Amino acid sequence: MSKVPTIIPITDLRQDAAMVLRRVRESKEPIVITQRGRAAAVMMSAEAYDRSEHNREFLRLLARGEKEIAAGKGHGLNAVLAEADALLAEGDR
């Protein structure tokens, strides 16, 4: 079951942006900013954004690999594992 997101009206963000930023950094969870009762933006810490981008790139590489396999192309297991280890090491920094 997924976590219920924190939702903050844009008025609260305007009134105390420092508190909202502190909350984002400390919780490491995104906050949904609403305007007129509807989701308008998502605020997340720089660390969470970097992690999200790294995961997206990893998924993109996996999808590319699946397409290559379907097309009859391929790479040796050792090369694939070395590239995966390099990507995972980047994510740990």
Textual characterization of the structure:
It is a single chain. The protein has two domains: 6-44, YefM-like fold (3-Layer(aba) Sandwich), CATH 3.40.1620; 47-92. It has four helices and three strands. The protein has helices at 10-15, 17-27, 46-70, 77-92; strands at 6-9, 31-35, 38-43. A three-stranded mixed β-sheet has the order 1-2-3. A hairpin with a 2-residue loop joins strand 2 and strand 3. The radius of gyration is 19 Å and the shape is elongated. The protein starts with 5 loop residues before the first strand and ends with a helix.
Structural class designation: alpha+beta
**How far apart are the first and last residues' alpha carbons, in Å?**
29 Å
Principal-axes shape call: elongated
Unreliable residue runs: none
Using only C-alpha atoms, the radius of gyration works out to: 19 Å
Task: List the helices and strands in order.
Answer: EHHEEHH
- What portion of residues is helical? 55-70%
Q: Treating each run of at least 4 consecutive H or I residues as one helix, how many helices?
A: 4
